[in-house]
Amino acid sequence: MTKILIVPMFLICSFLKAQNVDSIMADISQENDYKVQATFKSPRLVLLQTNETQKAKDLAFWVGHRFGDIGGEFGGSNTLYGLDVATDLYLGFDYGITDKLTIGIGRSKFNESYSALIKYRLLWQDDAMPVSITFFEQSSWITRKPFSNNEFGSEGDRISHFFQAIIARKFSPGISIMVNPGFLVRPEAQVQDFQDSANLFALGLGGRFKILKRISIIADYTFVNGLSRPEDLQSDFYNPFGVGVEIETGGHVFALNFQNSQAIIANNFIPNTTKSWSDGGVRFGFMISRNFSIGSKKPDN
């Protein structure tokens, strides 16, 4: 490319066809519009969402599973270290309307909840922009039977909304970091402890560290306690923390995880993590996705 650029213009006009000149100029434009690709290999890390969105007209099918406690009072060999118990099972579809805009639906075993999400990539890391920024919103609808006659006074008491900004940076091909400030809006009917706040701030931190060509270590931690949640609650709640191994296998990304959260989606795990790594409340889980191309795509120039 450099040698072509220094050739005098009259030689280009003499020896190249017009369409070849157009092709060269398109390549130059693409170089000037360089954007950092694949900050993370998946739209999901362990518990948190990443800045990544689906490619336009790509449909991702997601399957996620959380087993029971490995140790502690409810774990051990009698439950095969939690493998006999499923605290959550998630099935979902995410679709890329454009490269920047993703919508999705899903269903979780935890609280028998249905969810819908929207994800928009506002800024892309490049030579001028040091980070990528993506906005994420997820609404959840609890459909289980109420535990008491007055638990859900109206249908609106079953619905919560989670808003999050995902700020990510790829430092090298093997290291990516993100910071995820968020806010959960839920009705009073979903508050387990009467002293707890209905609406909760959350601050997530996550990272991906590549160790082999297709294998990476992933981890995320979400601060909930110590922010807007009161410290003198009668119930014990813990900050969600997960670590895992992410494996790229061509058509899908497979993640094997360990975390203290019983639930998979943010609307459930942010307010309801009642297990601790220190008391055997850690559990095994996995998340796997498979991408499908839906419809024809515009060919690259």
Write the layout of secondary structure elements.
Elements: H1 2-6, H2 9-15, H3 18-32, E1 58-69, E2 86-96, E3 101-108, E4 113-123, E5 132-142, E6 159-172, E7 175-185, E8 200-210, E9 215-223, E10 241-248, E11 253-259, H4 266-272, E12 283-293
Antiparallel strand pairs: 1-2, 1-12, 2-3, 3-4, 4-5, 5-6, 6-7, 7-8, 8-9, 9-10, 10-11, 11-12
Feature tags:
Porin, globular, disordered N terminus
Task: Provide an overview of this structure.
- This protein is mainly β.
- It has helices at 2-6, 9-15, 18-32, 266-272; strands at 58-69, 86-96, 101-108, 113-123, 132-142, 159-172, 175-185, 200-210, 215-223, 241-248, 253-259, 283-293.
- The model is unreliable at 1-32 (pLDDT under 50).
Structural class: mainly beta
Mean pLDDT: 86
CATH superfamily: monomeric porin ompg
First-last Cα distance: 17 Å
Describe the main β-sheet briefly.
12 strands, antiparallel, barrel
Number of domains: 1
How many strands in all?
A: 12
Order of helices and strands: HHHEEEEEEEEEEEHE
The CATH class, by name, is Mainly Beta
**Rg measurement, Å:** 23 Å
Contiguous runs where pLDDT drops below 50 for at least 5 residues: 1-32
Identify the strand order in the major beta sheet: 1-2-3-4-5-6-7-8-9-10-11-12
Strand content: 35-45%
CATH architecture: Beta Barrel
Task: Assign a percent range to the helix content.
Answer: 10-25%
How would you concisely characterize the structure shown here?
11% of the residues lie in helices and 41% in strands. It has four helices and twelve strands.
